[in-house]
Amino acid sequence: MSNAGQDRNISSSFAKGLAVLAVFDAASPSMSLAEIARRTGQDRATARRGALTLVQAGYLRQDGRMLSLTPRVLELAGGFLQANQFGLRVQPVLDHHATRLGAEITLAMLDNDQVLLLAQSTVDHGPVTYGFTAGARIPLIHTSLGRMLMACLPPDQATALVKKDPIPGHTELSILDHGSIVERIDKARQDGLVVTDSEFESGIIGYAVVVSRPGDTPVVVGSSAPRGLGDQNRQETILRELQLCAAELRHTNAVVGL
Predict the structure, then answer these.
(1) Which of 242, 130, 245 has the alpha carbon at shortest distance from 194?
(2) pLDDT tens digits for range 194-206
């Protein structure tokens, strides 16, 4: 099919409306039309039409000049989770291994050059570090989840991702040298696991292992712990439990086809 034929099959208005939904996050839970236009790169008239259409559809609410998401947006995520049987096939596995570990376990995948959190365990009295929820996005470079996801990619793709943009520093221990980061990704690819120390959040050690099989969409599981709880024995315990969790998800094909 020609590019022209492909274009005729795409609704640019619908795509622009989705872009409006995507700009809301924890840092910007509510925005004016001018802010939405700036963040989406749309002209103000286009952003206004898209936003007001979403208000009418019930996905945005308007309070004076400010707009924000409504709970109805959860229907979109809920359809994905139900279609892939997360409640039956993924959540019980995460919860089981998180209970054994005494810490949260997160399932994540690569999406638009970011880590997309797909699911999290629910355990009582587990330590909370980042406080993110399913659907949240976190950086690739300095998180254990992100680094493990990049290790699932062919080396040339991973290197291109690392070198694509300037590397931001989140903490004093964030590694900023492209070559050093690529070396750590290569080691993660070889080991099938990765540990990061205070690179994204000071005092927090991150752990991640791969779930997906080679050639499938990269999917990983990870956990984290305050540095004081991260002695060698504890690190080995966390990584071993993550590997058991990943093996169970892989054995049941719980994340195939994501």
Answers:
(1) 242
(2) 999 999 999 999 9
What distances in angstroms separate CA 77 from CA 19, 90, 231, 233, one per listed residue? 16, 15, 37, 38
From CA 64, how far away is CA 3, in angstroms rounded?
A: 42
Cα 71 from Cα 73, distance rounded (Å): 5
What 3 state SS string does 28-50 have? CCEEEHHHHHHHHCCCHHHHHHH
Q: Computed over its alpha carbons, how large is the radius of gyration of the chain? A: 20
Residue 33 and residue 42 in contact, taking contact as beta carbons nearer than 8 Å:
no
Rounded to an integer, what distance in angstroms lies between the CA atom of residue 69 and that of residue 223? 29
Contacts of 134 by beta carbon, 8 Å cutoff, 6+ apart: 77, 81, 117, 118, 119, 120
- Given a cut of 90, whether residue 26 has pLDDT beyond it is no
